[in-house]
Design goal:
The chain is of the alpha+beta class and 935 residues long. The chain is built from 17 helices and 50 strands. It holds the Pfam family EB.
Length: 935
């Protein structure tokens, strides 16, 4: 008696100790904020909402994650640990037991609870039948199911005595096969009134367990009473196909082959070591699944009469007389084709939709990602790895060889540079496993939790696969428009930073830093000079916009989906803003009178309070003209409500708008046309623009060194952060009504140095970058800005839009610039804005600018006085003489030359001796100093 009491105490202490050990091991409460899974602890992972959640092998109990325990196994402390695996199971003496007190039945894939005489799932309904007769198997031997065509079925006994002496056994779908069956609600009994039961099924496409309105009768094995049961049953098995089993032993159920690492322990080319939750098993390869075998070993097929005659398996009639549309992957044609399925049996090359078939089996064609489709969107784009078709793939893809007929030599697979620069995507399903993705910013492969479906191609099962595939990939510089320049191998050219591989960007590109990576990006002038290019076919064509430099308007064109060039915009507004088509400095349209004529102005008082007066350059049809017009303020633009616009294309576009209530940028689906200006291509451009809403045009807000917060100030109108709590050097304090705070506006010292000392660069509020330009092309810069060659920039052809602190229209040249004298003593040198810099007749030369004179109504050359005026080497007497220029140099002459000859001086000038190595030059009276004739 005493000994029994002692044993009971010992057992109680054991149970209590085990309970507390498990409680203490539950690190990380469900719902706790997290950034990465290691923040959550054992049994948890960091879900997409940045909250800790339980892995599929754990169950939540009172906000903690407890390990699920299978029937017949020990280690439980709570009933729910058992019930999550099998409905009604409970914990007794630290062991999970089945609800009916029957011992759990052993299958190849683990122990299950069942009522003897029925299948583990959905009772009698899933039993394998021929001509509506349940077929028997023998002694629990799964091979006896295979012999009658039930290739992926388990032999289930109707009693605990499962031996050859008990012939009453039947075939039920295996775990892998059951979880791939389509949703089937069954049917209701006559007169039942249509009552349904809340059951669950496993969606083989998403890998998620979903609710099933079961009608009470019929249906298939993909039918679970609880979501926990569905999750436990279907998320601890291979994604598709039976795992590799150990060799058969007579009278004993096979066991899965467990492995470690990449293929370690599988020793079979048709299987690969795969992680499923906390297990690693040998699962069929994609090639084996998408083959004629459909992941069924040939020796198994041989027991049922051999492989099917076609590349698909129609299965066995289910007795209903119906056939079901399914899809199989045909390795001969490299695509998925529909076939009629008879309802039972068959193999795993059997998909519910063409899309799920294509997504799954594309892995046997491409090392990562999916092959491109042709213009139909249905068939893979064909290419030839050698010969004339080798270049038929777009630049982001390469032609990869495929097995099959000679007419189908290859498909276009994404290059590593494309795949490895994709962002990490967890997906939205529930079959969680550890995967690896390549972080192009750090250059390393990093582990993450994958949900089991969706996501993207930057997703690898092992670190080695990831590192081998992405070792040469680099982070893609995010250009403002277009793509960064690559070398002949497709690698991005590095133009800045501390890298030893730094190079200089070639003409028509400039070195751009996107916050993490340097790259050579196309200039605005170059992009807007390009013709529309339809690009390479990689799916159905879509409508895009391009800037037509001949008509100076934005037009639509049909884009084939890949390549093309950077003159390619999602919306008309993007095109107009980027290429400055009659555009206000900050985008948007000028204020117009009721008759449609733009309102001219000279001060802000002449504009509505939502607009400001500023010079706007527009194309009149024959020339550029600059007038002062009313343009919308950034505050007005960012205060506009979301407007989805009107449909003008077959697809919607994801855009971003500033929400003035939350003071954040949010995404929305844009129909493609009209709408309003509170419409941005990315969250970054939206945020950049609207945070600078209080800043004068061409200036932006100052941020703290980490870039996450704005510099605040307390004296709007002032500067000098160190003395008055104001702003950094070159910034002024402004009040931002949209943000309800004071902000500092201006440009950094580094950016200020791009322009002459008296001037400031135009900083784009969208990109926070100085605006580049092409010299002698009017309209390249906002009004009162001129195109200036920067001697402090390291970029090739580094011309920037610069302005004077005081924007005053002189009628001739921009502030601080003077007219360049013309040849032959002319007061002005006339020019063409489209002429090359070095054009002797219509060009202006380096650091000189072709500007429109409102007084002369013609284009003239302008420049700094120090650059325009040659040193005056004319004789001091008579007074007020200045040299005559020719092509930017002194005009030399011969004092004895005949008037009108090339060696003679022009009218109103004389050939005089300089007294130095220049000899005789032509001199004239300085303009506005009289017209006295020189003799």
């Amino acid at each position: 008696m005493a000994s029994n009491l002692f044993l009971k105490k010992i057992f109680f202490i054991y149970i209590l100790t085990n309970f507390f050990i498990q409680v203490l091991s539950q690190h990380g409460t469900v719902g706790k904020p997290c950034e990465v899974s290691t923040d959550c602890g054992t049994g948890n992972y960091c879900a997409g909402n940045k909250r800790c959640a339980c892995l599929s092998t754990y169950v939540e109990i009172d906000s903690y994650c407890w390990k699920k325990i299978n029937p017949g196994n020990s280690g439980c402390s709570m009933n729910k640990q058992c019930e999550a695996v099998w409905p009604g199971a409970y914990c007794r003496s630290g062991e999970c037991r089945c609800a009916n007190n029957q011992p759990p039945f052993q299958t190849r894939d683990g122990k299950v609870c069942l009522n003897f005489g029925f299948c583990p799932l959905n009772g009698n309904n899933p039993k394998f039948r021929i001509e509506n007769q349940v077929q028997q198997c023998y002694g629990g031997a799964d091979a006896t199911c295979e012999a009658i065509g039930a290739l992926a079925y388990d032999c289930i006994c109707d009693s605990e005595d499962c031996t050859v002496n008990n012939p009453i056994s039947f075939c039920c779908p295996s775990r892998s096969f059951a979880c791939l069956l389509p949703m089937n609600e069954g049917h209701s009994a006559p007169g039942s009134g249509g009552t349904t039961l809340n059951h669950w099924y496993h969606d083989p496409i998403t890998g998620e367990c979903r609710e099933l309105k079961y009608q009470g009768y019929g249906g298939n094995a993909n039918n679970f009473q609880t979501k926990d049961h569905c999750d436990s049953y279907c998320k601890q098995t291979c994604q598709r196909g039976l795992p590799l089993y150990k060799d058969r032993t007579t009278g004993v159920k096979q066991e899965p082959v467990y492995c470690q690492g990449n293929d370690g322990g599988c020793n079979n080319p048709n299987y690969a070591c795969t992680t499923m939750g906390t297990l690693q098993q040998c699962c069929p390869t994609y090639l084996f699944i998408c083959s004629r075998n459909g992941a069924i070993p040939t020796e198994v097929y041989n027991t049922a009469g051999g492989l099917p005659s076609e590349y698909f398996d129609v299965g066995i009639p289910d007795g209903s007389g119906n056939t079901y549309p399914r899809f199989y992957y045909d390795s001969r044609e490299g695509r998925c084709i529909q076939f009629s399925y008879l309802g039972q049996g068959g193999n795993f090359n059997n998909f519910l939709s063409s899309d799920s078939c294509e997504k799954f089996c594309s892995r046997i064609l491409c090392s990562a990602g999916e092959p491109l489709k042709d213009s139909s969107g249905e068939r893979n784009m064909e290419c030839s790895p050698t010969g004339s078709g080798a270049n038929s793939c777009p630049s982001t893809h390469s032609c990869e060889s495929t097995s099959g007929s000679s007419s189908f030599g290859g498909v276009c697979c994404p290059r590593p540079q494309f795949v490895c620069t994709l962002k990490k995507e967890q997906g939205s399903c529930g079959t969680y496993s550890n995967r690896w993705w390549f972080n192009a910013k750090t250059g390393n492969c990093e582990e993450f939790i994958y949900s089991g479906c969706q996501g993207n191609a930057n997703n690898f099962e092992t670190y080695k696969q990831c590192q081998d595939y992405c070792r040469d990939a680099r982070s893609e510089p995010q250009c403002i428009q277009g793509s960064a320049l690559t070398d002949s191998n497709g690698n991005f050219i590095i133009c800045g930073g501390s890298s030893s591989a730094t190079t200089t960007c070639p003409a028509n590109t400039y070195c751009y830093y996107d916050g993490s990576t340097y790259g050579c990006c196309p200039t605005q002038a170059y992009i807007c000079s390009l013709s529309a290019k339809p690009g390479s076919v990689c799916g159905p064509a879509i409508t895009r916009w391009f800037y037509d430099s001949t008509t100076r308007t934005c037009q639509t064109y049909s884009f084939n989906g890949c390549d093309g060039n950077a003159n390619n915009f999602a919306t008309q507004q993007d095109c107009r803003d980027f290429c400055r088509v009659d555009s206000c400095p900050d985008g948007g349209d000028v204020w117009k009178e009721p008759n449609g004529v733009p309102r001219s102005c000279t001060t802000n008082r002449q504009c509505p309070n939502t607009h400001y007066c500023t010079p706007v350059t527009s194309w009149s049809g024959t020339m550029f003209q600059t007038k002062s017009l009313c343009c919308p303020t950034k505050n007005y633009i960012c205060s506009k409500p979301k407007d989805i616009g009107v449909r003008c294309s077959s697809t919607k576009i994801t855009r971003w708008y500033f929400n003035s209530d939350t003071k954040t940028c949010l995404p929305f689906e844009f129909n493609g046309c009209e709408g309003n200006r509170n419409n941005f291509a990315s969250e970054k451009t939206c945020t950049n623009f609207c945070l600078s809403e209080a800043c004068p045009s061409g200036t932006v807000v100052a941020r703290e060194s980490d870039g996450s917060r704005l510099v605040q100030c307390s004296n709007p109108g002032g500067s000098g952060r160190s003395t008055s709590g104001g702003c950094p050097e070159n910034y002024n304090c402004y009040s931002s009504p949209l943000l309800d705070q004071n902000v500092c506006c201006g440009a950094s010292v580094e950016l200020q140095s791009l322009c002459p000392a008296y001037s400031t660069p135009y900083i784009s509020a969208l990109t926070l970058q100085p605006t580049q330009c092409t010299p002698n092309v009017d309209g390249n810069c906002p009004g009162n800005f001129f195109c200036w060659f920067s001697t402090t920039s390291s970029s090739v052809n580094a011309f920037y839009c610069c302005r004077s602190p005081e924007s005053v229209d002189t009628g001739y040249c921009p502030p601080q610039l003077i007219p360049v004298p013309g040849d032959g003593g002319q007061q002005y040198k006339y020019c063409s804005p489209s002429a090359p810099i070095d054009d002797a007749i219509q060009g202006c030369g380096l650091n000189r600018h072709c500007q429109y004179s409102t007084n002369l109504e013609r284009y003239i050359c302008c420049g700094l006085e120090s650059d325009v005026r040659l040193p005056n080497i004319c004789p001091p007497q008579p007074a007020n003489l200045v040299p005559v220029e020719l092509a930017g140099n002194y005009r030399t002459c011969n004092p004895y030359a005949k008037s009108g000859s090339s060696q003679a001086c022009p009218e109103a000038s004389a050939c005089l001796y300089t007294g130095n190595e220049n000899g005789f030059i032509c001199c004239r009276v300085q303009p506005n100093q009289g017209t006295r004739k020189l003799n």
